[in-house]
Amino acid sequence: MFEEVFPTRSGPPNRFCPNFRVGVEPRAENSTALQARYNLRMKADEIALAEMFRKDARSCLNKYLPRIVRCLELLGEEEIWWRPNAASNAAGNIVLHLCGNVRQWIISGLGEVKDVRERDKEFAEQGPIARQALIARLKDTVEEACKIIDKIPVTTFSHEFDIQGYRVTGLSAVTSVYEHFAYHAGQIIYLTKLKGGEDLRFTHLPSYKPKP
Predict the structure, then answer these.
(1) Rounded mean pLDDT of the chain?
(2) How deeply is 150 buried, as exposed, middle or buried, from its count of CB atoms within 10 A (0-12, 13-18, 19+)?
(3) What is the tens place of the pLDDT at every residue in 127-183?
(4) CA 89 to the chain's CA centroid
(5) What are the DSSP E strand ranges found in 47-149?
(6) Distance separating alpha carbons of residues 105 and 178, to the nearest angstrom
(7) What's the CA gap between 181 and 60, in Å, rounded?
(8) CATH assignment of 44-82+89-195, among 3.10.310.10, 3.40.50.1220, 1.20.120.450, 3.40.50.2000
């Protein structure tokens, strides 16, 4: 779409922002000018809304990540791979699935790292994969995805991408990921409660009394 060629360091380029490369800090003099030029096409309130969305997306991922980690810490190594029945997945499978989804849609889809996902293997795995290995993989994946969400130009949210056979905007891709992440976090929490039989106390409501 854009024909300009900018000087860059090593790393895969992003087709919507030639100066943005995943895992590489762009040159300050080019990055600032490029972002400013793209922002000229957007109204101030649109940019503000996009930045709010960026913040909320990170917040959602970082809200549920520690809850999943806590569940994995409470479950025994064998319990992580326990399935209620043949039609259900173990917590370990769900963690692998979340890593695959976040990597495919954010890290590969928006960050343009090569897509190497093998989705069926996420559900076929029966373990054991050590608890700490699962936790490290999930944390690393979420951290990498959040860096990409942080760095992509706000205009990327309105561009279209081909991800997993779908044609979606960047905004839809990010929304899909954090909605999917929260959904499966709930499943892991439920599995943990089934095995432990205790309230995990993840919900802390603010003190509130309705006005008379």
Answers:
(1) 84
(2) exposed
(3) 889 999 999 999 999 999 999 999 999 989 999 999 999 999 999 999 999 999 999
(4) 20
(5) none
(6) 10
(7) 8
(8) 1.20.120.450
